Structures are given as C-alpha cells and as structure tokens.
C-alpha cells in the first residue's frame, strides 16, 4: 500500500484555476503479448507516445513491469492507491497486479517487462530481499538508468527479428537495468484510495482537479452521500480527514510539476493559489523550508548515487 505523503493545511488564499476540458482517449492495454519477457530475454521494452488525458484501461500481466515516462507526467492506479510519476521517477508493478494508466501530460511512455521465475518477485534479487518488491514502488531514476532504458530495443515479437549482435547488446543493457533498479531509492509519491465506491468516485474527481471545490459539501454533492457520511468514510477507510487527504494530492502534484523544472510561481498558479507568496507561506509553515528548497530537493536526488532504501 502506498505510504501517505506529508499533509498540508487548507489555505484560504487558494482559488480554483480552470482548464478547458476535453474528452479523454481510452485505449486498451498496448499489445503486451508482443513483448513477453523470458529467461533468454529477461527484460523487454516497449515505447508509445500518448497525449494528455489518454487512459489505458485496467489490465494485469503475469510478469513484473516498470513504467517510465521520459517526457511528461503519468498516473498509475491500482486497487488501493494511485501514484503520480514524473520523469524523474519510475513505478515498479509486481506481477499479477491490475493497474490503469492516465497521461497527466503528453508523454513518451516507456514500459519495461521483467521475467519472474515461478514464485519469485523483484529485479533478480535474493529471495530474502523480495518483500518490498511484492508491492508497488516509486523509484528514483538515475541518469544512467534513463540512458539504458532509451537504448533498449522496442521491437515487438511480430516485428523483424533481432540479430545475434543486437540480442547480445540487449542482454548487456538488461543486466545493467536490473542492477540500477536494485540500487534505486524508493520514494513516497503515492496517495491512498478507498474501497467504498462512493468515496472512490469522489477521490477520482479530486485527483482529476483538486482545486475544483473548496468544501467537502461541494465535493460530496455527486456521491449520493451526506458530507457527514463522506467525512466518516475518509477516517474509516483512509485514516485521514478529507482536508488532509486532498493536501496529499496537492503535494504530489507539486512534486510532479517541480520535476518539469517549473518556477514556483507557475506551480502555485497550477495548484490554484492566487499568489506565489500564499503558496510559499503554506509550505514554510508545514515543512519548515521554502518551496524552492523543499521541491528542489526532489530534483537534487537525481544526481546523487543512492543505494538501497525503501
């Protein structure tokens, strides 16, 4: 289950910033049967360019998967959580876990499939080290890992066969990718989701546009439940108040926006704050540092050599 993010208090100085809506593209899983990993080819790579708001329907695989957006932000959703993944991050999904994908921005989506021996899970880790890999993990993407992924061949099984030299190169790249994944640092970039259908509907609406309403009563209007019932469900299912949970979403979006090197004033406006100073004051009160320092630290990690971590 994704671990909760820092929670931030509500701000009176926020107001919604509207975007023009457009109907989403809905597509099925993108030919996973043409990229099946095996003992001989333990890592397979797939590439597709998808526009913002494209949704890939829920699906699962008998192998593990890593999703990396080399450009643009994506959102991956599983049964009990959703993960906002900017280009500086990757998401590990264990075998058999149903997941859906939403393009938050136009994205170059690269998917890696990993062969998993029967009963095993992880990027070729020892059996005693498998536990963290049996759940979703958001991982930091090093510059080396990003380069390796871009070099992996993305030829489907119904395409031209790779020659011996290309297969040898793929094998070497695969070994380095597995090594980088084993040494990648896991980060908290997830938001819990409920089982209750009414609450799930509300949470999905907040994820789509967390600044659309200011009060729980407004958000609860379309659920068929009273604000009091919704407030109780939040505490029961997610262990948070609605205000705290929505701030998890806002913080996750701020981190994703910071990954695109947006200036603080643009991040503040994107999140519905009517001035950068109001956004800055809120972050200072909550985390004890400026937004530039707090959000910049998310990027500074990219250039460091992290080992392990969960």
From TrEMBL:
Residues 197-297 form the HTH araC/xylS-type domain. CDD domains: cupin_NimR-like_N. Residues 1-23 are annotated as: Disordered. It comes from the Bacteria. Keywords: DNA-binding, Repressor, Transcription, Transcription regulation. GO terms for molecular function: DNA-binding transcription factor activity; sequence-specific DNA binding. This is AraC family transcriptional regulator. It comes from Parazoarcus communis SWub3 = DSM 12120.
């Amino acid at each position: 289950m994704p671990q909760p993010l820092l929670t931030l208090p509500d701000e009176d100085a926020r107001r919604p910033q509207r975007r023009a809506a457009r109907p989403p593209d809905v597509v099925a899983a993108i030919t996973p049967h043409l990229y099946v990993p095996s003992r001989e080819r333990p890592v397979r790579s797939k590439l597709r360019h998808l526009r913002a708001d494209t949704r890939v329907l829920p699906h699962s695989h008998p192998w593990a998967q890593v999703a990396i957006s080399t450009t643009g932000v994506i959102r991956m959703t599983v049964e009990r959580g959703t993960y906002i993944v900017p280009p500086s991050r990757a998401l590990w999904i264990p075998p058999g876990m149903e997941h859906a994908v939403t393009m938050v921005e136009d994205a170059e989506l690269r998917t890696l499939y990993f062969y998993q021996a029967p009963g095993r899970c992880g990027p070729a880790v020892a059996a005693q080290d498998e536990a963290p890999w049996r759940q979703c993990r958001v991982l930091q993407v090093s510059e080396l890992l990003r380069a390796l992924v871009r070099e992996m061949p993305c030829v489907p099984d119904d395409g031209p066969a790779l020659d011996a030299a290309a297969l040898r190169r793929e094998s070497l790249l695969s070994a380095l990718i597995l090594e980088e994944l084993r040494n990648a640092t896991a980060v908290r970039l997830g938001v819990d989701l409920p089982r209750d259908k009414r609450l799930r509907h509300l949470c999905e609406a907040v994820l789509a546009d967390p600044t659309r309403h200011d009060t729980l009563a407004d958000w609860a209007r379309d659920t068929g439940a009273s604000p009091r019932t919704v407030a109780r469900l939040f505490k029961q299912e997610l262990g948070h108040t609605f205000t705290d949970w929505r701030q998890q979403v806002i913080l996750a979006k701020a981190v994703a926006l910071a990954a695109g090197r947006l200036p603080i004033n643009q991040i503040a406006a994107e999140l519905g704050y009517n001035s950068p100073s109001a956004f800055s004051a809120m972050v200072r009160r909550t985390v004890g540092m400026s937004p530039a320092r707090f959000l910049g630290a998310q990027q500074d990690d990219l250039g460091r050599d992290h080992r392990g971590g969960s």
